[in-house]
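Friendly challenge for the regulars: who can give me the structure tokens for this chain first? No prize, just bragging rights.
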Amino acid sequence: MNENFKYLIYIFLTIIGIGILPNLILRPIWSSGIAALTILLNGFLIPISLLRVIKWINKKFDKDWWILNFALIIGTVCLSVYLGFLNWANWADNTPGGWGSNNVDKGTYMILNLELTIGLGIVGIALLIKIITKIGEWKSKTYS
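First reply, four minutes later:
Bragging rights claimed.
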């Protein structure tokens, strides 16, 4: 099998396994107490785990497709937050006496924005470090 194809398979399995699967696992056990867990999951654990595992995959295959990797990580963090919202909406619709998913208030938007801000902030800082590193590498190649 081609090394580039293996690399992409590893990346996509990582995206699915770390970014999407946890929210699918949480869906059937969702309750009001899980909201704090999703902030931790979507805001911190998923972005940091994706960055670390993809860095390991890059070293394993000796590749650095950083533009594709960061685009996939950003998309996965956004998808993960959206799946967390869908879990909440499903729970709100199925809770007897609940308010339903059509009653999204400012608190729900605040939690979604918090998860996105923290998650994308972590990825953004990593991307900024990567860009600065790449600029340094390009300058050192130019002057040597």
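The first helix runs from residue 3 to 26. The chain has a mean pLDDT of 90. Your move, everyone else.
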